[in-house]
Design goal:
Chain lengths: 414, 414
Amino acid sequence: MRPKIVIIGGGFAGLNVAKGLKHTAADIVLIDRTNHHLFQPLLYQVATATLSPRDIAAPLRSILRKQGNVKIEMAEVTAIHKDEKKLSMSDGSEMSYDYLVIAVGSRHSYFGHPEWESVAPGLKTLQDAVRIREKVLSSLERAERATDKVIQRRLLTYVIVGAGPTGVEMAGAISEIVKKSIQDEFRTFGTDETRVLLVEGGPRVLLPYPESLSTVARNDLQEMGVEVRLNSTVTDIKSDGIQIGDEWIPTETVIWAAGNMASPMLGSLETPLDRMGRVEVNPDLTVPGYPDIMVIGDCAAAPDGNGKFLPGIGPVAMQAGHYTASALRQRLKGQVPSSFRYFDKGTMATIGHLRAVAYVFGLKFTGLIAWVLWSIIHVLYLIGFRNKLTVIMEWMWSMTTTKRSVRLIANSKQ
Amino acid sequence: MRPKIVIIGGGFAGLNVAKGLKHTAADIVLIDRTNHHLFQPLLYQVATATLSPRDIAAPLRSILRKQGNVKIEMAEVTAIHKDEKKLSMSDGSEMSYDYLVIAVGSRHSYFGHPEWESVAPGLKTLQDAVRIREKVLSSLERAERATDKVIQRRLLTYVIVGAGPTGVEMAGAISEIVKKSIQDEFRTFGTDETRVLLVEGGPRVLLPYPESLSTVARNDLQEMGVEVRLNSTVTDIKSDGIQIGDEWIPTETVIWAAGNMASPMLGSLETPLDRMGRVEVNPDLTVPGYPDIMVIGDCAAAPDGNGKFLPGIGPVAMQAGHYTASALRQRLKGQVPSSFRYFDKGTMATIGHLRAVAYVFGLKFTGLIAWVLWSIIHVLYLIGFRNKLTVIMEWMWSMTTTKRSVRLIANSKQ
């Protein structure tokens, strides 16, 4: 009988496992809560109206259409029963497995304040991105109609919490919208009346980067009109403002980019988790004592060989996906796979119009060169030729005009 | 003092009024519930995953950016007080006017069964289109996981009610998705197990067209696998099926394209409405007794000169918009405008992949020629060069592949 391999999650990690098992004699089931693979590094561009959802998402069924050994199920796993080798789903059904790959990614962590989520959305899914886009665009519409200058000012204030890559990219992009793209479009306020704040608890932006790049990024952001607040702690968020240290800043748009947390569903594994809720796995990415279960991507705390854990970033997830497919192929042949080794090619983040910072193979790049590097790499990684073409067109368009093409508020009342 | 002209609705009718007043010394306010102008004739292509919302929608502010005499307000008008010359908004605010143009379009009419709306969505807004797209795509996902063949069959049955242009276009496009685009993507059912029904109360499809074109359209649909039911009355719709005459058809996807109704808000005008709730206007499109109020587009019952009313279609709305702008310019100069005259250039509808019917200047076209005609005219009318380019690319893509590029279910649970 063919072994049954179940993969939970169709992100970078899970999709690469499925693809890597293309010629393997196994029955593979790929489970995802949505019907698409999402190119998460560009999600902030959907949230900021440059790209459309379809530009960065491709139906899993299209991607895997020709791979006859994969069945895709759109479903939600609620618990893993590792000793019975089966899963429970949110619709009450169950599924058995011979081998299980857990690649469910992560969600936002509000540091013990789950009530902040409703007023300060984070950015993980297409739905999150569209919600943030509508929030930003609606605030501008409401500001145009505001008769009270105090309320208008509050509506025109945007606060991004967390200055990692996502926070930096969001702050830059929102600043471009509210200070450039909308120029001449509103009659009751000017772009100089808008305000964008980037709040960070640590001592600098882009903490994992070399310090000189953090300085460049911070200067770039400030030149673009972003107020950068370092060493600042958020103590409260309400629908009409945010408390940063001693200061209450009235705003109706707070975006959360400060922390991640793995799915609480992983608790059902009953195995040690790290403080971000990630599963502490062996060097071969298996769960201790359960060589039939592998955990990869943002939901795994995998040893980096130097006593720390690998970071929850795209390249780690992709490489772990490739590794896992090959490890499973070896196991099916009765071989013992060697440990997973992550090859760090570098990191990069865009800041705004033709500006970025990149740290690649130990070399530092800034400005236009970094932006071009960033663009090339992201386009190359985008799944599917057609999407690449559209994204290039969108970028060429937004480069030449600073306009935003996807400024739609769909979710209005009837 | 400059006169204040308020336009309610940024569709074909309202937008053309605003644009036509470009060089007029007046303060113009354009009110819309959304922030975008929508190219409604292509909305069914968003609902059926060929186009993205942004391909057929453009922000009103971008379109009117350079027209300094227009202010745009995203708001909802709840009542018109014609003697006090002011409007009430849903947020409790009020607005006065010197001249008022009402161009609020229409909604679906469920013939006295408002409870059907929740199970049988219609297609008027971007939100409707995305909702229908998610409904169709989700039914396929659920069918893949169905363990009961009866339930699977129900999930794979699609019913479109009403065989006017929208119903015909939806039936053709849905048939293409469930019988062609998804080929080889599902493991538990084949495309021959899907079923698409088009239900019409009248004796033929595309009733306003010449009978020979109706016959061609019906044959084309049947060739594509659509079951066409004429002279059939819908007596009940539930979440798990539809009653058509004596027959109960199990289905979870019913799409409503059977009837339109103007906004109930028009009742506040206290002037005669026709049976579709449209305002019966004078030949110059003014409200009887109120020369300062004009009603145009789908919400107007305008005399066609032969004792009937003009139909609620795009070309009438556009021409009425142009006429209204010129009539207002004349009135501001103290002149009396002549009556509105609609110039009928013809009608057309697509049926499927390279198939359409067109009735233009008294000539009938079918098949590929009609499809090419239809494509050229729709692209020419699309607002904004960039959108045109994208739409042409999408069409070229879908022509060569029969694939669908926007197969996204965004609205999944977290």
